[in-house]
Specification:
Strand content: under 5%
Number of helices: 9
Distance between the termini: 49 Å
Number of strands: 2
Strand order of the largest sheet: 1-2
Helix content: 40-55%
Order of helices and strands: EHHEHHHHHHH
Structural class: mainly alpha
Length: 202
């Protein structure tokens, strides 16, 4: 459904408690950059959007934690495995990449309309649409859902994002090594002809 709350944009979700073996998750610990980005993405009435209130706990009368009473470690949020909003934004990204930016903006605005944030102008260029997806729409809509790292890798902007957002230890980032994991040693036991990913040894 395109109407209603945040949960209606989830096609399939999984709820985790503290004994799930996944270590729960940290919806209460966003970066300053994400917090400030969400605060700037206002509704058409100039108010903070539901995306901010449903993502971050902060000092505001409308902000409140969604936790079960008396249990801080049981979250009221589910972990989305498939998000309709994610599908729309990925489709918009594909359209924009093909040069169909006006059509891409229509799909982005479907996501923005759900939370009543100001719609994008259909006069944005291909480059501006991509920048919006990278710096506003995907991080705001999919905040703390585990997709950001893979988005940055796909766009080839991991290092730029880490440094511009002043992430701790960003200076240690090595692009040729840190965007891929090492191929496990047991794989080389089965096939010694494998070539290890750059930055790692067999």
């Amino acid at each position: 459904s395109l109407e209603g709350g945040h949960y209606e944009y989830n096609l399939f979700t999984l709820h985790l408690g503290p004994d799930s073996g996944c270590g729960a998750y940290e919806e209460a610990y966003p970066s300053k950059w994400l917090f400030n980005t969400l605060k700037k993405d206002l509704t058409e009435d100039g108010e903070y959007s539901d995306r901010l209130y449903e993502t971050i706990i902060f000092d505001d009368p409308k902000s409140r934690p969604f936790y079960y009473e008396d249990y801080w470690d049981y979250s009221g949020f589910n972990i989305p495995l498939i998000r309709y909003a994610d599908i729309l934004l990925l489709y918009a990204e594909c359209l924009n990449d093909e040069g169909n930016s006006k059509e891409a903006i229509k799909y982005i605005n479907k996501v923005r309309d759900r939370v009543h944030v100001t719609p994008l102008s259909d006069t944005l260029s291909k480059e501006q649409v991509l920048k919006h997806l990278q710096d506003v729409e995907r991080p705001c809509e999919l905040a703390l859902e585990g997709s950001r790292w893979y988005d940055l890798i796909r766009w080839g902007i991991v290092e730029d994002a880490l440094k511009s957002h002043e992430k701790p230890f960003a200076s240690n980032f090595i692009s040729t090594k840190h965007i891929r994991l090492a191929i496990p040693h047991k794989e080389f036991l089965m096939n010694p002809d494998w070539v290890q990913n750059e930055g790692y040894t067999k």
